[in-house]
Amino acid sequence: MPTISIFFGIIIRMYYAPKEHNPPHIHAYYQDVTATFDINQIEAWIEIHKEDLIANWELCQNGEEPFEIEPHN
Length: 73
Description:
Blueprint: E1 3-7, E2 10-13, E3 25-30, E4 33-38, H1 39-48, H2 50-61
Antiparallel strand pairs: 1-2, 2-3, 3-4
């Protein structure tokens, strides 16, 4: 599984195989933690919750606890 990007110590990898399973996804590694992300779902979730994410960012920057964002199925 080749590394396709590294940023902030996070290594992004993607399998290359003719019959790799769907949905399109990436594998992220940070120290001893591994996660797999469905590319389209993450992008869509961020777009849907963009205003909430920015509001939470501002709260965090002021030392305030962010609010929970309800998931969408």
